[in-house]
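Exercise: predict the structure of this protein bound to EPU.
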Amino acid sequence: MDKLQMTGGVPLKGEVVIAGAKNAALPIMCACLLTNEPIELSNVPDLQDVRTMLKLLLEIGVMVDFPDKNDRSRLRLQASKIASSEATYEMVKTMRASILVLGPLLAKMGTAKVSLPGGCAIGARPVDQHIKGLKAMGAVIKIKGGYIQAEVKAENGRLQGASILTDMITVTGTENLLMAATLASGTTILENAAREPEVGDLAELLVKMGAKISGIGSDRLVIEGVDKLHAAEHSVIPDRIEAGTFLCAVAAAGGEIVLKRCRPETLDAVLVKLKEAGLKIEVGSDWIRATMKDRPKAVSFRTSEYPAFPTDMQAQLMSVNAIALGSSVVTETIFENRFMHVQELNRLGADIAIEGNTAIVQGVEKLSGAIVMATDLRASASLVIAGLAAQGETQVDRIYHLDRGYDRMELKLTQLGANIQRVK
Ligand code: EPU
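Solution:
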């Protein structure tokens, strides 16, 4: 199993190009299932979850092609011959986002069998809202042998438009129902829809494919179903979480970096907090320059749905707080168990206590390097950030979690001057 080894205390300096967003690329890849015609994607990040999604799509019968063999960020997907409408337990347990094939397969093929994801490291994460929404659209759904078995029984073979109000805001739930609604007969209204930029990016692709969607970017999506969707080209939006992760890295380790090819307007809540922490930020249309000369100041924050502070940035900003001047209170409202990084940060000398869904962080002047273990994707990123700021050598074990969601993180950090290497 690969590990990352780093010697902290080196300020970061230089430029880094932000990759396409993982959480936009995954639903967008599934959208290819809605048409027989080819979908050409660019700015697809090169990371493990994308490779896992490609494997699943191949199993389903999608033709996958890299038009330029030297460029993994360009991808051509064509689902003209679907061989199987199934996502097995093996696939779904490897990657929960596999659930995103449910809506499109059901809408296009009239049948889908997708393993129910179990709980995961950050919480129980049920998919009841996906199921509730599809049932409202007329799908007959049974849970059997750990699988969601869904079928369209209507005479015209199509899902029916419906008004759906989800009990809570769910990102992949919104995406599944949005994809399903594009081919339904009649109009679907999704109330309480997730407003994350990744949902908007998926909707933009669907519109290019011929879908009729209004309200993109809002919490009320109106989808007028069409008979057929067609070929389209799309460039995946830049990854706001990767961008935010590098910003936290410079806030913790010091230095000056420029993020290129990013979308600053998707990072408002993160930028507000990092400015409060003392990071100097200059923003252009698609770049951010960030400078940190002093020790960061502690900032309290609370995670919530977009446009508020993202849960996917909670662990990384906590690492900044760990070495900040003062104390802070961090409240996690999206996932019930997303503090797995706390014990590991404490092994590096941080002073963090957990009470329920709140972490109380007393900033310490210095962290000191140690061997720590990654437990999930964003927790891994927070440990790397802490390691870059710590004195001495830190080793982060089990970085397959990191590889799931970051495109060449240690190479990008090396370009910024960090002393970091992958050890096999
Ligand atoms: N929820 C339910 N029932 C449902 C759906 C969600 O109870 O049917 C609950 C969840 O348990 C959670 C909350 O609602 O407490 C929000 O979950 P959501 O469905 O929005 O999360 P998700 O769609 O499974 C996506 C991202 C996550 C990100 C969350 C929140 C993808 C592939 N994943 O997950 O990304 O944390 O939204 O923004 O888009 C990551 O990239 O590290 C990551 C975990």
